[in-house]
Amino acid sequence: MLIEAKGINKTYKEADYILHVLRDVDLTIEAGQVVSIIGPSGAGKSTLLHILGGLDVPSGGKAYFNGQDIYALNDQQRSSLRNTEMGFVFQSYHLLPELTALENVILPAMVKNNSRKTSAIELEGVKLLEQMGLAQRVSHRPSQLSGGEQQRVAIARSLMNKPKVVFCDEPTGNLDSQSGAMVIDVLLNLNKTNGQTVVIVTHDQAIAKRTQRIISIKDGVLQ
Ligand SMILES: Nc1ncnc2c1ncn2[C@@H]1O[C@H](COP(=O)(O)OP(=O)(O)OP(=O)(O)O)[C@@H](O)[C@H]1O
Ligand SMILES: [Mg+2]
Predict the structure, then answer these.
(1) CA-CA distance, 136 to 153, in Å (whole number)?
(2) Residues paired with 19 in a beta bridge
(3) Looking at ligand 1, which residue's alpha carbon is closest to its atom 3?
(4) Residues in contact with ligand 1 (CB, 6 Å cut-off)
(5) Which residue, of 45, 69, 98, 222, has the greatest Cβ tally within 10 A?
(6) What is the pLDDT along the chain (223 residues), one digit of tens a residue?
(7) Owning domain of residue 159
């Protein structure tokens, strides 16, 4: 089991009530699966993804990665786990505008390597961009790339440290259907060629249908 959630709850305390965003969520995802998480806006999809990915602390319950209780780690250990074992892809790409495509892609390896850039790291970054169909865009900055291209740079970056899982939150949310389909093709191909585990949050039934397993969530409850 790569990912396991047990009795996850997430609440927010408002002035006069408690907002219950996730309720007793139990979930397991095996290594090598491609899973989609679907549900209406506000259902708790992003919150769940963030908790599974070490980005948001649950109010109750436990989240495990490879058997490790993620929130038993201190901040530094958890950052390191995220950097080395997990990749993240977001709806709005989150690329750094002042860096080139290649510099964005190799950033996680630089962080892991204490900011030392080696030719091996650069070669790996170029290879990933080539795999994403971006061989001719290595030195472009994000503003010089289309949305679909920026998202493929973000996917390349998420893969830089060879993570065990790639978490994607509405990766096609800002893309037209053709660029979106290409991004999903890229993610599904990763699974086909190297057995990469992929978790995709999406509103889009057509995308969900292309994954091996669909997890549906409504009002914070798994259906
Ligand atoms: N920091 C916060 N404080 C209070 N409420 C929050 C906070 N973050 C999220 N919520 C609430 O939690 C609920 C679930 O949010 P979440 O972002 O997980 O939804 P989602 O399923 O990803 O929706 P969408 O499809 O619109 O992205 C929402 O109702 C939201 O208002
Ligand atoms: Mg969301």
Answers:
(1) 12
(2) 12
(3) 12
(4) 12, 19, 21, 39, 41-47, 203
(5) 45
(6) 999 999 999 999 999 999 999 999 999 999 999 999 999 999 999 999 999 999 999 999 999 999 999 999 999 999 999 999 999 999 999 999 999 999 999 999 999 988 888 999 999 999 999 999 999 999 999 999 999 999 999 999 999 999 999 999 999 999 888 888 989 999 999 999 999 999 999 988 999 999 999 999 999 999 9
(7) 3-222
Residue nearest to atom 27 of ligand 1 (CA): 41
Which residues have C-beta under 5 Å from ligand 2, the single-atom ion?
A: 46
> Taking every pair of C-alpha atoms in the chain, what is the biggest distance, in angstroms?
57
Beta strands in the chain (DSSP E): 3-13, 18-29, 34-38, 60-65, 68-69, 86-90, 165-169, 197-201, 213-218, 221-222
Kindly report the CATH number assigned to the domain that includes residue 183. 3.40.50.300
Count of domains in the chain?
Answer: 1
Residue owning tokens 């993610």: 187
Buried b / exposed e along 196-220 (16+ C-beta atoms within 10 A): bbbbbbbebeebbebbeeebebeeb
